[in-house]
Specification:
36% of the residues are buried. This protein starts with a helix and ends in a 6-residue tail after the last helix. Helix 6 packs across helix 8. By secondary structure, it is an all-alpha fold. The protein is globular and about 55 Å long. Helices cover 71% and strands 0% of the residues.
């Protein structure tokens, strides 16, 4: 019987690569505010990895990371309980969506970060719908919605600031 239990436990454990992806290269283990820390790591990747700030590269990374990220979130949820704080791949993708197509300048990036964190916490509909869903898809989609809202808000703020000559852009 102990062989069966150990095999069942092994089957439930998340494989290393999925754990690395799901936890945002282990940034999800940060002891305080792991979602905010994961979002910050996503910004640093965006800022410092060449090409990540190009809209089509960033979009491709988001699309390509979504399915394995969803699988990783699903597996980690089964292992650690509902929407575990160590899962931050959703923050990575949501943050990158928040920055998608925006100017790679300090102000839009900072605005994008704070707007994404606001919408990720506020769970404005339909993000609240997805947040109530269990499983990897629910974990991922509420942050996708938050990223879309953040992107639109930053675009609106930049447009208003530019049109009113508050920002010389």
């Amino acid at each position: 019987m102990s062989d069966t239990v150990s095999r069942d436990e092994q089957a439930r454990k998340t494989p290393f690569l999925l754990k690395a992806l799901g936890t945002g290269f282990f940034s999800g283990y940060f002891p305080v505010a792991s979602g905010t820390f994961g979002s910050l790591i996503a910004v640093l990747i965006y800022w410092f990895i060449p090409g990540m700030n190009t809209w089509y590269v960033l979009l491709a990374v988001c699309v390509l990371a979504f399915i394995p990220g969803t699988i990783a979130a699903e597996r980690l949820e089964k292992e650690h309980g509902a929407d575990p704080s160590i899962v931050v791949i959703d923050e990575f993708i949501g943050m990158w969506i928040a920055l998608l197509g925006l100017p790679r300048e300090l102000l839009p990036v900072v605005l994008g970060f704070f707007a994404f964190r606001f919408f990720d916490i506020a769970k404005v509909a339909p993000a609240n719908y997805f947040d109530r869903r269990r499983g990897g898809l629910g974990i991922m989609l509420d942050d996708v919605v938050a990223g879309i809202y953040a992107n639109l808000l930053v675009r609106l703020v930049l447009f208003i600031a530019t049109e009113t000559n508050v920002l010389p852009m």
